[in-house]
Amino acid sequence: MKTAIQYFLIIVITATISSVITGLYLSRIKSEAPKKDMVHIMNLIYEELELENVQIEKFNSLTGQFHMKGKLLSKEIQANSREYYKIFTLDRLDTIALSELATEYGTLQTRLRSLTTRYYRDMEDILNPHQLQKLKTIYLDALEQTKNQN
Fold first, then answer.
1. Largest CA distance in the chain
2. Phi and psi of 74, rounded to 5°?
3. Any residues with CB less than 8 A from the CB of 55 and at least 6 apart, and which?
4. DSSP secondary-structure letter at 35?
5. What whole-number distance in Å separates Cα of residue 85 and Cα of residue 98?
6. Is pTM beyond 0.85 here?
7. How far apart are CA 102 and CA 37, in angstroms?
8. How far apart are CA 127 and CA 135, in angstroms?
């Protein structure tokens, strides 16, 4: 059972990818902008990627849609996790309910990963290969820093 709990916790940690992307580059530029100043953060990303105005418009549209959908999925994942722990802490485990929630959790995670994959694939239509690599580096740096904070 301990392995199952560890596995579940690993999955919960991966769910944070949506929040990492929402906080784009935040931890990397903490000294340059307050946490709540997403406009400033986005402007720094635009500058680092050297985006043109047309690219900025498309980037904003795509990123906005991604964040909206990702946030909804993240809320579903969090609700699923709360329900799982609620049932898990009962005196008598309902293994059927836990199994159903674990399956649902996996489905939600798959949807979130698919959304992320589509986001990157759609970015390929907006960014040149150099810009795309820079964006991935920004995201991976932010993810790594978030892992180190946990």
1. 59
2. -60, -40
3. 49, 126, 127, 131
4. T
5. 9
6. no
7. 36
8. 9
